[in-house]
Structure formats: structure tokens, C-alpha cells
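Practice set, problem 2.
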Amino acid sequence: MGRHSMGEFEQLVMVAALRLAPDGYGVSIVEEIEDRTGRDVSQAAAYLTLKRLEEKGWLNGRQVEGGEDRGHRERRCFEVTPEGRERLAQAHMEFTTMWEGLAGEVGR
């Protein structure tokens, strides 16, 4: 496994793709992040991140035919790869380890 760091937004995108699998696509991933975090997410930032995660081998994208509501235009759906799942688990563990014993420091 290559040693790439995983940024916060990359983690959000990966978790959203994992939640929406196997049919998560750009707009639904943006909506999932916005709904769960309350953050405004730029679609451009999301699509750039999806492309970068594919290049790292952490996501697989595939073209899927759209329904009548889309005029049968294709959309690109994303799934987390086994390497992506492993890297996401590692990032979660690293983050959790860093927070151990500090909940009182931030009022939680």
C-alpha cells in the first residue's frame, strides 16, 4: 500500500461513498456530507477529490446509465476499494488515538 496522507475532506468523501455504496455519485456524496455535517460543500471540490481518490486507488468509479429523470444521461458512481477501506480504517485509528484522553480539554 502506498503511503499517502488522507485529508479531512478526503475522509468525509470516502465515508459518504461507503455509506451510499454501491450507488453513490457526486451530487449524492455532496448531499450526504452536507446533511451529516451541516457544512456547505462545493461540488467542484467534491469532484476534484473524487478524481484524486480514484488516482490513489482508494475509490473505483463506474459509469451507470441514468434514469428517465436524467434523460438517461450516465452518472459516475463510486465505491471504496479494499485498499481505500484499509486506509480509511487507519486514518480513523490515527485520529482516534490522537484524541485519547483529551475529551475534557475541549469540553466533551
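Problem 2, part (b): a different protein.
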Amino acid sequence: MQSTVYSRSGMLGHLVSDSDRLELSLLPRELFKMSGDKRGLQILCRRGKLWITQASDEKDHVLEAGERFVVSRPGVVLVQSIGEGLMQVASPGMSTC
């Protein structure tokens, strides 16, 4: 899984993981960007609030702790923390426990 992490001042770097699941702590307003076909990928809000938008989806999604979102469209997916947040990203079919 490869994704890009942005802060308010710009790109922080690329996140590369060989795992099917990862957790990422986000500072207020930090942005996590994924591109490509991520359909089925699960995003779970572990702490705080997350704002999610995906390509070709007119609706934005806000997750609170314990809520999950499943990517349903190919293209860019943006996740931004509203305040400090902890998110987990898991491959399709993986448990997000």
C-alpha cells in the first residue's frame, strides 16, 4: 500500500507499507491522499473525526470514532483530520479490529 501524507505546509512524504493494514495518527488538518483504484479499501476512524472525499462522489463523508467508510470509486481519496485523529486503513476483506 503506498499513499502520500500532507501537512498544512505541504507534502510530508510517501507512506509505503507491505502490510494489509496500517494505522496513522494525523495532526489537526493533516491530509492523507491515496490514488489509484482503492475500491473496497476500509477506512476506520479510531479517534477524533475524519473528513473523507473520493473522486466522482458528490457527497463528503465525516467519520467519528468507531465509524468506517469503504472506498467505492476508483481515483483519488482524501482523508483529513478534524482535530487530532487516528485512522486505520485495511485492505478489502481484512478485519479492522
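Answer key, part (b): The chain has a mean pLDDT of 82. DSSP finds no helices and eight strands in the chain.
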